[in-house]
Amino acid sequence: MMDETTRIPQATAKRLPVYHRYLKYLHESGKERVSSAELSEAVKVDSATIRRDFSYFGALGKKGYGYNVSYILEFFSRTLSQDKQTNVAIIGVGNLGMALLHYNFMKNNNIKIIAAFDVDAKKVGTIQQGIPIYHFNNMEEILKENNVEVVILTVPSEEAQITVDKLLEANVKGILNFTPARISVPKQVRVHHIDLTTELRTLIYFLENYPSKND
Q: What does the CA dihedral 105, 109, 115, 121 come to, rounded to 10 degrees?
């Protein structure tokens, strides 16, 4: 986790997991070094941007040599807290929540869904993909017991804010919000909104207006 003295632009921070994923692929393939041009072709980010992103972290590479794959993979793993497990919970086990339960986060990341919460009596008390589903009434206690500070929110929109208020009582610090609702949280809590409809509309727009571009 970076402190205030090493804060980087948000756009760079969003690209770091993309770099990390490809570097891990290279490492597993036995590749020892990679150039910014090679990275650029693979992750679809121009090489000047890659060099600028990497420069925020000091001298990670050498001119004419490129980047040592093992070294920068380990560096970004630490930067992204990939060297430790992060416990996550899913709040709301509807169709989307159930799909996320079946997604294997641990395949490529040290992210583990340790619990899910719902009010449906048919789901509460069951285990899906090895993950127990609890009732909302037990949410605060279980989140605190398991040191869960990050949750995925997939409840109905009308229930979003009241659910978030309960999550704040459980000391949750990060929310990945799949609901269309724009929730209110204190400034120390981070919310990332995932609106699938908006993303699809944006994709369709670019397909129709910029057919030869990759974004």
A: -10
